[in-house]
Hints:
- The chain has helices at 6-15, 34-45, 80-85, 90-112, 136-147, 164-168, 199-208, 250-261, 274-277, 280-283, 286-303, 317-326, 366-378, 400-415; strands spanning 25-29, 49-51, 54-59, 62-71, 76-78, 124-128, 152-156, 159-161, 174-176, 179-181, 212-218, 221-228, 235-240, 264-269, 310-315, 333-339, 357-362, 383-388.
- By secondary structure, it is α/β, with parallel strands linked by helices.
- The protein starts with 5 loop residues before the first helix and ends with a helix.
Amino acid sequence: MIFADRSDAGRHLARSLAHLRGPDTVVLGLPRGGVPVAAEVASALRAPLDVGVVRKLGLPIQPELAMGAIAEDGARVINQQVVNSSHIDDAQLAEVERRERAELERRAHQYRGGRPPISVAGRTVVVVDDGIATAATARAACRAARSRGAARVVLAVPVAPDDWEERVAGDADECVCPETASQFAAVGQFYEDFAPTTDEQVVEYLRRGSGREVTVPAGGRRLGGELTVPEGASAVVVFAHGSGSGRHSPRNRFVADALNGAGLGTLLFDLLTDEEERDRANVFDVPLLAGRLGEATAWLEGELATRLPIGWFGASTGAAAALWAAAEPGARAGAVVSRGGRPDLAGDRLATVRAPTLLIVGGDDPEVLDLNRGAQERMHAPTRLSVVPGATHLFEEPGTLSQAAELARDWFLDRL
């Protein structure tokens, strides 16, 4: 199979990794070429993305020929056969490793922007590259993940030689590759576009998925969350998800990516614990959800290094919670957006909301559209109803979620 480019390869690879979707999965892309592939995998698995920084140890007189590889936390793989046949002594090997480790540390700092690596302790780590030839760098990355406490290490690539699992030699608990080839000369032969990935592109991919995992104290519970604050952010938007959803909601994450790209920070967090969600009454307890949203916002203000305007984005019942909370005296939300929401569930509180509110509804979601029209009539705050043509309740139709994300982005940029 020939892939159009690395993103195309990542989408194909992600289909073979669906069984790994879960809250304890982390995706590590090997820079530089493995990061665009890993970004697609992380998006499909709804998992955080980080880099597994590795460096090839090239022969002193022939740097393109690897005699091994190193990764963070001291992990290393040495091809003793190449070392012996090239008559490399310990001093020469140590000098190459010293030089490459300094470069490894520089790149790790550059790629992450000074942020610490995502914790992998006790988690499933998916190490992703754009393909495997010698496997030295992939093996080093797997060993590094293991040394950092990963409970399980999965090595995943779109294409590799037939004997690639033998080359990995037990460094991964699971190996996933949808396309293997007996006639394997180079990874690039399986791509139409195999242009080099730049450092700047790596940084951009990580910036899009650079959410910091946080624990949000609210309602006497410790709730999982993800906080992303782009450099120079002008405001932060807190998400209130709808029934049966959480911080891993692909639709909310899609909107969050659009906001991050516009320089807005985002906090996605679980309004309920797993145990609480099993009681369906909690899912529709708007006052409970509103209280959690308010407490999460108060926590966020203490977490941020500087005071920034804050907005609330709610979907379905989360929109009702956002409007309920926005009616509280001293509510901190400077703007509210509801996507496919149930503002009617906020009841009489709608009349006391003061934050400018945007109601986004699908044109093919007639019942919810009527409920939003009725809610708009009851609100005294500056309120706009935007209808996305052809969209049903979940905005699953092509292009409709993008339109909703753009409407939300523009509203927050204007109002915050």
